[in-house]
Design brief:
By secondary structure, this protein is mainly α. The chain has helices at 19-26, 35-43, 61-77, 81-92, 119-126, 130-138, 150-164, 173-194, 199-231, and strands at residues 50-51, 57-58. Helix 5 crosses helix 7 and helix 8 runs antiparallel to helix 9 (199-231). The chain is globular. It starts with 18 loop residues before the first helix and ends with a helix.
């Protein structure tokens, strides 16, 4: 089979990877990654694999790093693809844009979210008490699990700070109900796509869900900022 031309930024002679090789390298960290999702990301203009004369996609090491960044931003920051695409466009243009979603509470970086914490480690790193963790479980603010990621740590740190102001997890029970209502909105919006049974439609439904969730977050944050002006003029 003829080799594809080297992708931009790819060193001459460096091996290019087929879809199967890309999946083998990334699915351990991103188990939801499928050939359909790779093709979808290409269709949306986020990644630009080379093509062989026969039409096979070939990915460079730069493509691999780019895919890992895209998937990390989606998974850990729930960023819409449009936001990720704009960021990558600035990078491709030689600019030095701030990493979207990188400024997380507590100084956490989205690039440090691969680790998993036990319940004891989660409690210790957040500076929480076992009782606060149990209250967070009871209020459904954090879901009990064998291990916990960076997102749970960020939430628990926020609960520690809120507790100092007299706000307990039980006061946040409505947050779970609000999240369920938002989920209902997303499910309703996805119905036309979800009715289709082909793999491509399933991928598009998953991506659209993330997009809608990101836009709902924008609206929610704006409403809170507007409401704050009534409390603190």
């Amino acid at each position: 089979m003829p080799n594809a031309a080297p992708a931009p930024g790819q060193q001459p002679g460096a091996p290019l990877l087929g879809i199967g090789q890309v999946l083998a390298r990334l699915t351990t960290e991103f188990p939801d990654l499928t050939p359909s999702k790779l093709r979808f990301l290409e269709e949306r203009g986020l990644v630009h694999p080379a093509r062989t004369p026969s039409g096979y996609r070939k990915f460079s090491q730069n493509d691999l790093s780019r895919l890992k960044l895209i998937l990390t931003l989606q998974r850990d920051c729930y960023l819409p693809l449009a936001v990720i695409k704009d960021y990558l466009a600035d990078v491709d243009a030689g600019l030095n844009p701030p990493m979207p979603g990188a400024a997380l509470p507590g100084g956490a970086s989205i690039l440090q979210t691969g680790r998993r914490l036990s319940r004891e480690e989660l409690t210790r790193e957040a500076g929480a008490t076992p009782m606060l963790v149990q209250d967070a479980f009871s209020a459904s603010v954090i879901t009990p699990a064998e291990t916990y990621g960076e997102d749970s740590l960020i939430v628990l740190k926020a609960l520690v700070e809120l507790q100092r102001s007299g706000i307990e997890p039980r006061h946040l029970r409505g947050f779970r109900q609000a999240a369920e209502r938002e989920l209902g909105l997303i499910e309703s919006a996805l119905m036309p796509v979800a009715r289709r049974r082909d793999p491509s439609s399933r991928v598009k439904a998953a991506e659209l869900a993330v997009e809608i969730a990101g836009q709902l977050e924008v609206v929610r944050s704006s409403l809170i900022r507007s409401a704050l002006s009534r409390i603190v003029p």
